[in-house]
Amino acid sequence: MRAVAFDVFGGELDVRELPDPAPSPTGVVIKVEATGLCRSDWHGWRGHDPDITVLPHVPGHELGGQVVATGSLVRGWGEGARVTVPFICACGSCAACAAGEQQVCERQTQPGFTHWGSFAEFVAIDHADVNLIAVPEDMEYTTAAALGCRFATSFRAVTQVGDVRPGEWVAVHGCGGVGLSAIMIATAAGARVVAVDVSTDALHLAERAGATHFVNASAGDAAAQVRELTRGGAHLSLDALGDPDTCAASVESLRRRGRHVQVGLLPGGATPVPMGRVIAHELRLLGSHGMAAHSYPRMMELIRAGVLHPDQLVTRTIGLPDVGKALASIGSVPGVTMIVP
Questions:
Q1: Which Pfam family, just one, is annotated for this protein (predicted)?
Q2: Which pLDDT tens digit goes with each residue over 57-100?
Q3: Residues 6+ apart with CB under 8 A from 218
Q4: Distance between alpha carbon 190 and the CA centroid of its chain, in Å?
């Protein structure tokens, strides 16, 4: 198969011929029709993810495609099925899975991290009966791919972990793929959204996604601007980028008893958090890590009903030869980039 791989962390990403994957007894092989370019892939390429231990490595973790091979123990899926998968693939049998919390599975696998991923013509996914999600015939694969990570991650972060309510103020720090998804979802839930970014182009996309108030973080204290716009602070604030500065700004954006959700992955090292404010204002600090396959139906129904439009967040489509340059410059092009192998 053709795939994009690297031999050294932070080194060259090139297209090469690699062996086709084979399904495990409980798994499938998927022909990748579209796969997203995500900041998490950048973290993996740079060496920030401890799950990547063997090189060369193929990145990529959000995908849409067709099943082309199945393991002997797979019961619910056959060749030709149109599918996507959560980027956190659960085992289905640990204590977390038994409790319905597959997004924190104790034996989770992640394509593009624990094994070769979807920047390729084919990708293997284990425990297919636990992890595969059917894609409607009328949904484009580029839309389906976004549901594997960024859109579904944002959906759970906003609606379940963040517990957004109509009329609340929501601040979203970082208007990349995760942030734009969070804005669209919070707006659809009836919240008033403040978009925060350093890029005017990203803020324009945030307006299209539903934000009504905007803060250019390069113009000064972003948290203070959010507190002024919302007359006291956001009820819910998300760090959708993953940076010590945006994490701190998100916490400082909150009103008393507000809720901060950390969605963006943070690089290694210290992340200063204003804990004095957390204590004095009784703030809640929450982490959100993807979404289990069994939680997808509610989101899929909102997409089918035309309430949510993840397809509108895709701003460009590239091929495998363009992946190296695009990943190295992640964040320079607003919106969601899709790869069609």
A1: ADH_N
A2: 999 999 999 999 999 999 999 999 999 999 999 999 999 999 99
A3: 198
A4: 22
Location of structure tokens 């973080």:
217
Domains of the chain: residue spans and CATH = 2-149+291-339 (3.90.180.10), 153-287 (3.40.50.720)
Looking up tokens 């919240």 gives: 191
Determine if residue 163 is left, alpha or beta; phi over 0 gives left, psi from -120 to 50 gives alpha, anything else beta. left
Beta bridge partners of 192: 169
Q: Are 274 and 223 in contact (CB under 8 A)?
A: no
Q: What is the pLDDT of residue 332?
A: 87
Residues of the chain with pLDDT under 50: none
Q: Check residue 1 and give its pLDDT.
A: 98
Name the token pair of 256: 């008393």
